[in-house]
């Protein structure tokens, strides 16, 4: 007897944060960077808020690289909904950030301006971060 064909839906699991980042943990493009010290999901709105804060402080000088991308779909069930009845609807997208991951890079501006711009971006993020400087950086 033939069984009916099962339709498989792709469900994206939450995953775990048990490791330190082994990719994207060094400055690749800019002279200064913002490094994560905690694991967390960073939403697309938070990334955009950081980008706006950095670019406004730098007054469109220099260059900014965003090293994380929100490619993980996050779902949410409506408020006051009973248990069951399947998975919730898509709510937003998030980037998975592990400790040690460089999230933003900046170049083409003085050290003081870059530190201030990245400090403003730190306030927009839900993780503890650290500002890092390229080893061979020589202030001009």
Description:
With 140 residues, the protein is α+β, with helices and mostly antiparallel strands. It has a domain at 32-74 and 91-133: Ribosomal protein L16/L10 (Aldehyde Oxidoreductase, domain 3). It has helices at residues 44-57, 111-122, and strands at residues 32-36, 40-43, 63-66, 72-76, 89-97, 102-107, 129-133. The strands form two sheets. The protein has a four-stranded antiparallel beta sheet, covered by helices on one side. Strands 2-5-4 form a three-stranded antiparallel beta sheet. Helix 1 packs antiparallel against helix 2 (111-122). The termini are far apart. The mean pLDDT is 90.
List keywords for this structure.
140 residues, alpha+beta, Aldehyde Oxidoreductase, domain 3, four-stranded antiparallel β-sheet, three-stranded antiparallel β-sheet, 2 helices, 7 strands, 19% helix
Summarize this, please?
This protein has 140 residues and is of the alpha+beta class. It has a domain of 86 residues: Ribosomal protein L16/L10 (Aldehyde Oxidoreductase, domain 3, Alpha-Beta Complex).
Structural class: alpha+beta
**What is the CATH level 1 assignment of the domain at 32-74 and 91-133?**
Alpha Beta
- The CATH superfamily of the domain at 32-74 and 91-133 appears as Ribosomal protein L16/L10
- Report helical residue fraction: 10-25%
CATH architecture of the domain at 32-74 and 91-133: Alpha-Beta Complex
Number of β-strand runs: 7
Number of helices: 2
**Average pLDDT level:** 90
The backbone outline, from C-alpha atoms, is elongated
Please state roughly what percent of the residues sit in beta strands, choosing from under 5%, 5-15%, 15-25%, 25-35%, 35-45% or over 45%. 25-35%
Lateral arrangement of strands in the main beta sheet: 3-6-1-7
| Radius of gyration over C-alpha positions, nearest whole angstrom | 19 Å
Tell me the CATH topology of the domain at 32-74 and 91-133.
Answer: Aldehyde Oxidoreductase, domain 3
- Spans of at least 5 consecutive residues whose pLDDT stays below 50 are none
Main beta sheet: strand number and arrangement? 4 strands, antiparallel
Distance between the termini: 78 Å
Give the SSE order as H and E letters: EEHEEEEHE
